[in-house]
Every structure is written in C-alpha cells, then in structure tokens.
Amino acid sequence: MEGVNMKKRVGKIVVAVDESEESMYALSWCLHNLFSQGSNSTLVLLYVKPPPPVYCSFDAAGYMFSDDVVKAMEKYGSEMVNSVMQRAEVVCGKFGSNINVERVVGCGEAKDVICSIVDKLKADTLIMGSHGYGFIKRALLGSVSDYCAKHVKCPVVIVKQSEEI
C-alpha cells in the first residue's frame, strides 16, 4: 500500500486495538500512511472486551461467589479498557493533535463484535494488527483478522509488524 495516496479518500477509519504491541504498531502505521495533517477523517479506536464469564451462583465446591469477586473482575475489565485506550491516544498524540478520534468499546467475541461495529459505523476502512501466528496456531485458535477480512463490507488492512522492530 505504500506509494498509494489514500490520504484524501478516507473518511472513517476503524482501528482495532488491544493489549498487544501489534495493534499499537497497526495504529501507528495507519496514522503515518492514511492520515494527512489537514485531514477531516475520523479515527475510531475500537476495543473489544471479552464476553463476561457465565457465573453459577455456586462454584464446584459449593461456595457462593461473592459480589466482591464479581466487582473486582468488572473493575479489572474497565481498567484494561482505559489502559489500552490511553496507550492508543499516546500513539495518536505523537502524530498530531488535530485528528478527530472516537473511542468505541464493544463486548463479546472479538471477530463478531468488530464486524458488527464496523458495519454499524459504515466505516470506510478497517485496520488490524497481525499477531503473526503460524499455520498450526491459526488453525487451532482461528484468526480474528482473517475472519474480519472475509466478513466486513469495507476494505481491511492487516498490518504485519516487521521483524526488525
């Protein structure tokens, strides 16, 4: 994609971010390759929280889950969202302050939530990092980016982090 001037044609770009360095690299790549300083494009930072675990009121030993445990897990989830979004905003801040940035947080199975939100937002482009899993790991775990590339209606750019970085 380098050498292709997409900077003037892009309206709403969704970048899927998570705890990984790969997603922050993809965000940085997006900012350097798809945004210009005078751009009126919107950058949407999308984070997907895992689905909440289904709790039975009693665990295997017959003890009841306390509200404190459930609240602690919910607090951890909120802190993770804030941490990832703050890291992403630091990356954006290094590029320039005139970028229109929106935060969107979904909850559920990442591949389904990403596809749904990208369609709902009528995004022009979806940017995702690649974890670089090999064939076996991808076959066992599946690939969120592969799934999204096949199911969203807009172009998808999967950014691979170079070995040198």
Characterise this structure.
- With 165 residues, this protein is α/β, with parallel strands linked by helices.
- The protein has a single domain, classed as HUPs (Rossmann fold).
- The chain has helices spanning 21-34, 67-95, 110-121, 135-141, 144-151, and strands spanning 12-16, 42-49, 100-107, 125-129, 156-159.
- The chain has a five-stranded parallel beta sheet, with helices on both faces.
- Strand 1 (12-16), helix 1 (21-34) and strand 2 form a beta-alpha-beta unit.
- Helix 3 runs parallel beside helix 5 (144-151).
Order of neighbouring strands in the sheet with most strands: 3-2-1-4-5
Overall pLDDT score: 80
Q: Supply the CATH superfamily name.
A: HUPs
Form type: globular
Task: Tally the structural domains.
Answer: 1
Number of helices: 5
Helix-and-strand structural type: alpha/beta
Unreliably modeled segments: 1-8
Beta-strand content estimate? 15-25%
Rg, alpha carbons: 18 Å
Summarize the SSE layout with pairings.
Blueprint: E1 12-16, H1 21-34, E2 42-49, H2 67-95, E3 100-107, H3 110-121, E4 125-129, H4 135-141, H5 144-151, E5 156-159
Parallel strand pairs: 1-2, 1-4, 2-3, 4-5
Quick synopsis:
The protein is of the alpha/beta class and 165 residues long. Helices cover 42% and strands 18% of the residues.
